[in-house]
Amino acid sequence: MYTIEAEHLTKFYGSARGVVDLSFTVERGEIVGFLGPNGSGKTTTMRMLTCFFPPTSGTARICGHDIVREPLAVRRAIGYLPESVPLYLDMPVRSYLHFFAEVKGVPSRQRRQRVEETMQRCGLEQYAHRLIRKLSKGYRQRVGIAQALLGDPEVLILDEPTIGLDPRQIIEIRNLIKELGSSRTVILSTHILPEVSMTCTRVMIIHEGRLIAIDTPDNLMRRIQQTPRILLRAHGPEHELIRTLAALPNVRSVQRTSTGAAALDYYQIDTEPDGQVMSEIARVVVEAGWQLQELRPLDITLEQIFIQLITDEQTGPRPC
Amino acid sequence: MLIHTIARRELKAYFTSLIAYTVIATFLAVSGYFFYTNMVMFVMFVGSDVRLGLWQQTFYDMRFVLVSLMPLLTMRLFAEEKKLGTIELLFTSPLQDVDIILGKYLASVLVLVLMLVLTVLYPILLAIVFSVDIGPVATGYLGLFLMGSACIACGLFLSSLTENQIVAAMATLGVLLLLWFIDWNEGIAGAATIRVLHQLSFSEHFLNFIRGVIELDDVVYYVSLTVLFLCCTAWSLESRKWRGRA
Q: What digits encode the pLDDT tens for the residues B113-142?
């Protein structure tokens, strides 16, 4: 049985589009990333899954409970961190968590222990008595995540969990999410692409309210990476260099990508799939005496995948 | 059970944010002033009627203080949660809307009760030197309580419509004042209309309580007004389901 099964989820705000016909399944233990530009429908989808509002049509089941017919059972099964990380700023961390433990139905005898455990897990023990208002953004985020974890939910839904944090905090929160994902199902949304490749086991790309791709980050990259690209930095006569390299077998094209100072000559080389040309390029450049400084494959980034998928969407589906 | 959880958090919020202290202190100061001046007036000029007249006059004045202060007590109930976004946490917790509404309502009503209980000091002080009829004083307090509860329900509803606390408070005051004065200008309406307006009037229904009379009619008026506003709040919260916003 899937932990989350969405069937034709659709939401319209009046006549304005929220999301259209979203169907997907998520298995226990997966960390799924919702990826899409702002306004693409990520939050709308999460708000339907958390029973904040019902879908216009379609439905979803979370741990076997229907979001339209059994909202209370669904809410008991999920922990949710909304995008803006709303908090009662005038409460100390511990009382805040106690309140939500009570709301989430943690029995009174276990409540104290559960709150202490959760604070420890999120690194909040030292701040137990601190007013939330006085906490930094990163710690507020932790309080938000702690709140989501309190009811020991099967499913965690985190809307942009790392937005607005500094790089060190981002790494900490990502590690926390990965750790949590080992025993639970996590859905997180983001518009920051490296985030999904670092944390998620699967990616769902949403654009203008529609699901346009769902796959593992690796598969998505492979799907797009039909022409492996190589970056070369060398110093030599431009025309001769391009002509020589382009003549090599398995090389499709060579382009100079930098302009300006001669010492910064970068070339981008597109090659045939599975063509092993790196050593050949290295040999030719060295033999010609063109001062080889750098030679490496260019990984396609999720940014490129994203743009590619969106362009495909607009120009019709691509066969692959 | 969950109503109680929400109510406790609201009460804590009232007393950590100083709102409750400010409202209670203002109420005590102003109604204390009214009580004192009324007492002086009755003792000096119409001493014979202190038993009833003093209380009638005092409840009359306290009613005014109550109506002006209740909007300040209720303005934050939903508006603050909407502004902070915490309403989304409540809506996605295993809570029903009715738990949230009644929990918040209960918290404000408890503050109201505390306010009223503290003013019981006035009759107690007076009773030391002068005999006090408990009956009319008790009905007066019942009237203040019922009216205050209706004010709270009204404020709760208007607070659920906006995320701006000032707007919530002003709108509540507006509605309450209109309900209060709705039958004051008898000259503009015919006898039939004025009878209907009397039935709708906040101030008219209060009169029997300060005369020491509990009319079913008056109790039903305040209770049904309260229920009406609580239902309106429920509809207002329900609107997120089609509006898509909190």
A: 999 999 998 888 888 887 788 888 999 999
Nearest-angstrom CA–CA distance, A167 and A192: 13
Q: Are A200 and A33 in contact (CB under 8 A)?
A: yes
Dihedral sign for Cα A130, A128, B111, B73, please.
positive
**CATH superfamily ID and name for A4-223:** P-loop containing nucleotide triphosphate hydrolases (3.40.50.300)
Residue of B nearest to A11 (CA): B244
Burial string for A98-126 (b: 16+ CB within 10 Å, else e) reads: bbbbbbbbbeeeebeebbeebbebbebee
Query: pLDDT of B44-92, one tens digit each?
Result: 876 556 666 788 888 989 999 999 999 999 999 999 999 999 999 999 9
Distance CA A191, CA A161 (A): 11
Decide: A46 and A78 in contact? Cβ < 8 Å.
no
A-B CB pairs within 8 A amount to 73
Beta bridge partners of A233: A266, A294
Rg of chain B (C-alpha set)? 19
Across the interface, whether the CB atoms of B92 and A52 are under 8 A apart is answered yes
A contact test, residue of B90, B93, B96, B97 with most A CBs within 10 A: B93
User: For residue B98, what are the domain limits?
Assistant: 2-243
Q: For residue A320, give the nearest of A226, A227, A252 by alpha carbon.
A: A226
Tell me if B89 and A95 make a contact (CB, 8 A cut-off): no
Question: For domain A226-298, which CATH number applies: 3.40.50.12160, 3.30.70.920, 3.90.70.10, 3.30.70.330?
Answer: 3.30.70.920
Domain ranges for chain A, please list them. Answer: 4-223, 226-298
Q: What is the ipTM, given to two decimal places?
A: 0.89
